[in-house]
Amino acid sequence: MTITFEVIHKDIAGRVGRLRVNEKNVRTPALLPVVNPHLPLVTPREMGRMGIEALITNAYIFRRSADYRDRALAEGLHRVLDFDGAIMTDSGSFQLSVYGEVEVNNRETLEFQQAIGSDIIVPLDIPTPPDAGRQRAEQDLGVTMERIREAHRLFPDANLAGPVQGGIFADLREESGRAVRELGLTFCPIGAVVPLMETYRYRDLVRVVLAAKRGLSPATAVHLFGAGHPSMFALAVAMGCDLFDSAAYALFAREGRYITTHGSLKIDELAELPCPCQVCRSMTADELRKSEDRERLLALHNLHVTLAEISRIRQAIQEGTLWELVDERCRSHPRLLDGYRELLRDTAELEVDDPVSKRRFFYRGAETCRRTEVLRYHRVIPRIPLGERVLVSFDGSGTPGFDTVLNFKPPFGPYPPELAETFPIGQSETPEWDEEMVRAGCAGIRSLMEANPGKEFAVRCADEWARVVREEVPGAEVLHEQV
């Protein structure tokens, strides 16, 4: 039994990849819908017809079920659920997080998952709530790692997931990631993050995920446990998450909530169904509200929207436009925007994985100035060959007496005319210049000056930018009067 993960396309830290579980292939990023055999609003067979290649169910529920325990042991999980794709089983950790205890130990749940033919088994890790102190987080992590090592020892040939825990403490998350990496596990869920998402603590979520990623191997497929709403998928993928599991499609349907990429709406308040899925195009909002099959139809819609967002993200990665999609999605809620800005604080970390060249670069406001493409360009600016006297011209015109004349394009900064058609200068779309982008471009001038301390620099700009240039590039002569 084996799990392998192959990365095919990359953008930021997001990957389009191929997860191979035994003989089953899963395209990533991927959604694993949560299936409760007692409450199947959408059956696994239907999910397979929708293109779903993997799902997740709860081994603890199967183990305690009078209806399904013996069947699963006798026939196997795939036959009971009538699903040919990959099936991952949770150990009971979710129930542990909700109820504080479960009637099963680590070895028992692992043996049961193996016995029913789960493709990916999960040890009984300890989810640490976000409000827990450091001492508890350390203790919980210690128990989790003991159980992962026990699972690795008892079932060395199993497709074992290695959950990454540590509460909201970044160093513990990184430590957990390193420990799992040392065991050679290639499938690692990041656990105990549902409370962060339920309370919109996306800034903390970003810190937790990036810390875990620092400890994990780049070859690891990363699963974000309990991430179910499509509005945050792009942000999570940009951090390097490859798989998600979600019961939101069904839970929201039971509550009468209609999922969109920018949030969820109450079906009782909708006048129109703003979605192209089969459900929404076959009836009106009023007909959906009054339907006897309302919950099931809402679940189908919610699942279609969620799957469509996953496809949109995969396409954005292949186009090199994931930053634009993250920017768009994260402006749907102030807390998501907090998470986006937190991600941008780690641009230096993300830049290592981000492709050097892309199809285009769209400027979308102040956040854009901190993107990986800008940081990378500022890092290569010092390589530009210069004469003794250097002019950076905002309008592209020269002035006598200079050995080198460079053009200027914010938020990147100075560039030789020969690079005008190359990425990112030539493939960047910017609106009318604003102060934030010009300041970012001036940081590029500073990088050039710091790399060439013995040379003279001047900046030619219009009067409106002279103040900004003087503030951001204090060592350069400003020639705005001649414009």
Automatic annotation (TrEMBL):
This is tRNA-guanine(15) transglycosylase. Belongs to the archaeosine tRNA-ribosyltransferase family. Zn(2+) binds at C275, C277, C280. Gene3D superfamilies: Queuine tRNA-ribosyltransferase-like. HAMAP family: TgtA_arch. Residues 14-334 form the tRNA-guanine(15) transglycosylase-like domain. Pathway: tRNA modification; archaeosine-tRNA biosynthesis. One of its GO terms (biological process) is tRNA wobble guanine modification. It catalyses: guanosine(15) in tRNA + 7-cyano-7-carbaguanine = 7-cyano-7-carbaguanosine(15) in tRNA + guanine. It comes from Methanoculleus receptaculi. GO terms for cellular component: cytoplasm. Its cofactor is Zn(2+). Substrate binds at D125, A192. Exchanges the guanine residue with 7-cyano-7-deazaguanine (preQ0) at position 15 in the dihydrouridine loop (D-loop) of archaeal tRNAs.
